[in-house]
Records
---
Amino acid sequence: MSAAVVTKNGDRLQIVWKTAILIGLIVSFSGYLAGLEIAGIAGRKLFFSFVTFTALSMIFVAAFRIVAFTLLLIGCFVCIGDVVTELSGGGTVMDTSGVSPEAGEAIFWGKGQCHTCHKIGGTGSAIRCPDLAESDQGPDIGIRAGERIAGMSAKDYLIQSLVEPDAYTVDGFGKGNMPKVWRPPIALTGEELAAVIAFLQSLGGEVDIYPEDLPPEVLAASATPPVPYRPPPGIQVDPVRGEALFHDLAGKAGCVKCHTAKIDGGHEILFEEEKGLTIDGAAVGQDDLAEKLRALRAAMEREIPLLAYVSEDGDVPDAERAEIEKVLSEGGFEPIDGPGEERPIRVQIVPPTVDDEAPEESETKPAPTVRLNDEDVGDMEGLKEKLEALRPQVAAETRFRIYFEAKSKIDPTLEQKIRDLCETYKFEFTVMARVGPDLTGVAARQPWEYLLESILDPSAAIAAEFQQHFVTDIEDTDWVGVIQKETDEYIEIVEIDDDGNPRLPERILKDEIESRAIMEESPMPGNLKEILQFEEIYNILQFLLRLK
Amino acid sequence: MNRKRLFKTLLILAAILWVALALAPPLLAADEASEDYRPFFFGIENRTVVWIIAQLHLMFGAFVLGVPLFASIVELIGMMTGDPRYDRLSHEFTRLLSAAFSTTAALGGALAFALIGLYPAFMNHLSGAFHKTYYIYAGFFFVEAFALYSYYYSWNRLQGKKPGFGLAGIFNLFLTGTLFAAVGYLVGGFASMVIESIPRWAGSTSGIPGGLDHSLKIGVAGAAVILFIWKWSKAALENRKWLHFNLGIVVNLAGITLMFIANSWATYMMSPPHVSAATGMHPDYWSEGGRFLGTAWEAVNNALWMPVNIHRLIANVAFGGFVVSAYAAIKYLGAKRFADRAHYDWMGYIGSFVGMAALLPLPFAGYYLGRELYSYSATMGQDMMGGTFSWTFIIQAILIAMLFIGINFYLWSGLGRIRGSEKYSLHILVMLTLLVICFGIWSTPHNLPMSAEERNLVGSQFHPSLARFGLMSAKNAVVYFIIVTTFFSFLIYRRANKGKPIPFREHGKPAIITLGILGAFCTWLLLNKAFDVWHLDPSTINVDGKKIIQVLGVGMSVKGFLDLSGWFLVVHICALWAGIVLALKNKGILGQGVIFGSTVAIVTFVFAWYGFVAMKHANEFLRDIAVVQVFITISCLIVVTGIDIFLFRGAKTIAGIRWGKMTAASQYALITVCLAIVLLMGLMGYIRSGLRKDWHVFSVLRDTSASAYTPTIFEMAKIVGFIVVLFLGLLSFVFWLSSLGEKDEEIPDEWYAEARDEMAADSATVEP
């Protein structure tokens, strides 16, 4: 009796099952052919699902009934997952790169998780925090933001709302509801924060946000979480060599022409003797060359390393090259070949004494520059002695460049003393304008990928402060350079010469400016990846990564 | 037999070796320690590999933890009732454990290998904080292995009594004494908690003195040991079955400890200690490089550790019960002999009963976990309930609907084997309708997916009435109603074949004392919460307590409105005592009705409305409301069960249960319930792990691998579906393996002779 009941129930189940499959097949196949959607799912998907189930039903005989039933349930679970994914829009991926309202919108509904508490009018459902569209809480957020706190612009209000959410909360919404989205776990980057603000500004207001508008501590803390840095396999990376390249004014990189960077703090003043140490093609064969070189040797023996190199644009005949090498050899210098035959010859002279005694160290020492730290500058007597010693050994027209560590404001009294000292000893003195960002602590602010990109493609991301401007005055004179100073009356622009050295600032009255535009190209040379060897690029990067 | 043992021994040795190697990450990671990630074979994503192995390990872990829990419960019932069926059932499932245990260990080893191989930097970090727990884990692994095999192989030897002082008797004396001491210590702790709460009701902030707390714990533990020695020590020395049961307790304690340790690793990843969104990583506990500087215990005792422990422990009991019932269902459908069919029907009932008993409190534990998760990180909580993962809870609602409707359907089908149950047909129809409505509400999203045309038609993104169903107040109300309804189904089933209850007073003092204790406990629980609410400073939940609001046309302060919820607790306390008094006055059914009525009225109807008002004026108070709802429902389950135990005890049985008279559909319901809980484990594993987003260790160690994104729900469904197929396949293989050895004797016909006679009588009635 009971066995009969079981069998009867089983038979009924089979009939229901087969009928359901048949109906499913007909409906889904019709939908598939007609290209229709059924309950939000493409007919194709439904059809294939039912084909699978039909195949399963073929083994729906007594012995495998339970297996088929189990697989059917699991199949249903997967289908529900598919349907829910489509309903929730979970499969769509929006572009969240760059600072734009579109990117901000994607972050608002995605990574930023803003939508879990805020809605925007009819979009979204959260009620924990204010509706950001026009509602009983006020006009659209782009407008409302400028009216919230007297004297605070919409941009500043939105920045404050995202950076310090509890600084001001709307009536009826308590403190502590909103996390600082620039900190973990959400950890939006500065760019992403700016994009969200741009999106919110676009809701009725004017978009004028840049990542640089955000507080520096936010930019530092919200920097993209570092991908662990790994130098490429097969090369030996040496930060000391990188440092040498960085500071080598006459070298291939010469980053210090525009950038400053220090690890140990304190002011740093770099001296470089230019004239008299450069041997160009015209100097070869001149009588005083050997004399000059001997003077240089003497200077180096007094532990004042000076740079000397031979440079020539274009091909250098072998005879001349031999002559140069001979003269250098007589002077006690050892010539070093440049990076490639197709490029101008650059022969760097390395002090042989240092080379002999510590060959490895010699390559890593920043030979071309005289580096004086705070103590040297502070001890004016010491500086005086050095200049006195240097004077008789170099030509009268020698010109010293003095680089101030740009980030720190050097004491004006101290600067004046140095000026006076240089005047006394007939050295020309120039305070170089800052045309590149100070890189002190850059590794703490930026990920290694950013630094590498900045070397290889400097124009990819340019800090607003160092963008190049193209300025034309009413007399059709053009300037291309970095604005060092701007007042209501004038601008001071610093141009870069053909050698990559900053010129003295030029002052242009605003009344005389015909046009002014921001250029997309960075003032930094974009050909470093061609000039530098692969290993050298990573040496510099490794040095920069130490600047924390 | 020897060959089988050799095979098992080899399997265990392999597993131990595997685990031992896995527990020495530096050994393996040393040569390539500089890499954070390493690729797997064939371009398969690292995350997918770890996901599959971890989930499989978790499922087998749940099996080897849930089934011994089930076996011990059943063995204890067998010892108390003397019914040999329970002992056989317990033995049958313990046999499955030996092969399943090795498989679990092997999967654990595979998981450790995969993590070390694919995520060396992460494992280095984890080992830095947890390496000390590895050795404790290994130690307990041995304890569980030895206890499990002792438990299984000594089954026949440790039966009955053996007079005299044997080694086994002394061992049992020691084990039981220790267990009594432990239980006494916990009871002492609870007593001190109760004493501590009473001054707090008067607003005092001074807690119980530390010395008193300690004295209470030690005192009650000592008293428990003395009581044991005085009353049961002789029995413990002689009763061998008792020793066997205690071995089962050791298996379970070791298993639970292993699970707790493993949970600490997983929960540390979600809630690393001393990290917050507001202040970041506390410098006393974290190095600048993100290395944990605290002690191993501080890492273990993280915010989500205990909530996950409790949730998993209860869930594992439910899992064990439902696996047993599904196994019984399959056996039932294939059974040829009447006695077999009757036995597997009975087994299915026992399995589902244990599963259901654990299922009812599971939502409370889940709520506790969710609440703690939200408290640890509002970001993670919001992401769970309102963000990326909110849609997964629609799927969760569907699976839980399968669970509850499946188990209710099974119970209602079970009424078919009880003569006299026809009178409940209307009850069942009403309950089914209500359950379907409740699940409809539960699975309604707040933000209905609508096309632009539909949105224009409705005039809003939200449906004017259905949108309310998407909010927590409505969902909480129906969830508790579902729990109460399922409990009610079970009560109907229990009393279906019972006649009129005997007068309650005839049960004597035990009934009065039991109901008194249960009533007192529930009163303390509810009153404690009521005082919490009354002493709540509204400013701590960012509301102005003095603000006047309109509630049902009456003006009252926000504080007064919040205090109302405390008064509802008092109303429910009165209902509980009214129910108890009515039961003692021989009106137990009416008493149960009063308690049910109060529960449903307050939890479902009053608080559904109250929640919406609170949401408008004091949103953060919703958390307290949910706790109030939980406590009222729990107290209802406790007191009604207490009354029910005595209510039909000794009542005349109208007819015996016709075991073996179940429909095939009811057995498929059991299989469905088992599948639902396995799928739920997979789904919740995805949610729990996915909530960390792209962090290995939330807010501390970022996942910078290519697979740091959150997979879509569809991807999850495919992978979880695959894992479940794999798990069921492996489990079937394990079942088959264990069937290769010794066979159980046939089910004796006399066990179910009464059922056969009842069915024969039915046949005679139907076919005159």
Note: Chain A has a mean pLDDT of 66.
---
Amino acid sequence: MTYVIAAPCVADFSCAEICPVSAISPAPPDPVFQNAEQLFIDPGKCINCGACLDVCPVSAIFEEGSLPEKWKHYVALNREYFEVTA
Amino acid sequence: MTDNAPVRVAIVGAGPAGLYAAGHLLDNRDFQVEIDFIERLPTPWGLVRSGVAPDHAEKKRIVDRLFDFTLRDPRVRFFGNIAVGEHVTTDELAQWYDAVIFAHGAGSHNALGIEGETLDGVWGAREFVQFYNGHPDQAHLHFDVSHPRAVIVGNGNVALDIARILTTDVAALAQTDIADHALQALRNSRIEEVVVMGRRDLEFAAFNNPELEEFDREGAADIAVRGGLVPPRSQLEPLAAWRAHRRFEIMRALTARPRRGGGKRIVFHFLATPVALRGNGRVKQVDYVTNSALRSGGTVSYKAGTEVETLPAGLVLLACGYRGSPLAGLPFDAESGVVPNRAGRVLGKDGALSGIYVTGWIKRGCRGIIGSNRWCADETTKGLLEDYRAGRLAAGALQRDELCDLLTRRNPDVVMFDHWRAIDRAERLAGRGAGRPRVKLTRTDALLSAAHGPSRRIAARSAEPTAGTVS
């Protein structure tokens, strides 16, 4: 299981700052952040600690298994972001 | 300034840009800070209240989960209903405080520069967005929704918000905090088709994918595409290609849905540029040309066609981007619509102005989403604290209590945090019965009544000093 960022994300990168394993991208100073639609969590790095969950100001982060139905596809989107940018 | 004295900062504008700046200042470990928000409206939160669409309740959670804590901090004060240029000047703020951060955002929109832009029925998207969000400046406006077609020029996220609001079932909108006057207008709407017209093709359209995806929800309008639904083929950079591919797949799924029948529809009209808006006093049609995309490697340019076509419409909304507007006493670059600055330090003719900063849209232009302002504000506040550390800030002339007294004399109808809480409570209570998050008060007098109580207001008015007697 992993945590997943879904559609409400507003790119407040508090999650990326607090993540102990730097699993969240894009975050400053990555220039990609400037035009980011949202941030993503790398399922290969996430240790499921939940630190990001608490600091997200819009509650955009869910545990994979508790994603609302309409945002289930964000599991794949979070994974794909890191495949594409690897 | 003694070593123990706090840095006293005024922040003009209590929207995300200013609130993130305040958050960074409060979080700094080196210096004590005291922050006063100077806000033109009786309400805080800026575009979270007056910009974010009413059906995006999840994004508004940022108020209760973050910004409210900032404004409640004992080191922070809120002075609402205080307008720079009316109750105070920029020079006064600069003298009174150790530093001033201007975070007043965008007060205007990009014009198209074509014939007919001033016809009745042609509006800036900003005006319509503020109207449906209950901004007191636009509460009195009347939008003609009697014609079956509305055209939105531009296809960014704001255009998508407007298209959604114009086509969503009114019963669903009635569960949100949309302004009551907008709800009433939409109940009477005869709009059947909303055309979202953009110069570029789908691959390079301005909207974000999560926003486009929202048209997938139950009750959403039918979606059609004019100007070609072609797979992306220009992006060489993998991330851009991935986003373009996702966008194409979303759009393909939306257009492939069975028609609802009888419902409203949204037409994404790509590769079209308006050349004139025509009508006799009131807009009747949009004249446009079709563009062709010229691809070369990873870049695309667009060539306007010569054949002018016509689309009848009764409402035209210009959504080609917001734009900063000048504020008296503050430098302004009319070309780019921002305050000239270096990393947030405002630049005058002879370099950086001491103690004057900008953050948010007025600093970097109208780009990015709510959280983009957090990085932006980090840069500005770092510069401010650096300047303070280096002794480059001239000490403000007034103490904390003096500032409060003076601002209250300048406008006895000042809305402080507790007054705002009274407004907030009144709005939330009004929403309770109707199953809505809140019912917004949209007139300044109603907001001030809720803030101060009706009797307090009358007393304050009669005690108001005449101009010239206040220092």
Note: The two ends of chain A are 21 Å apart (CA to CA).
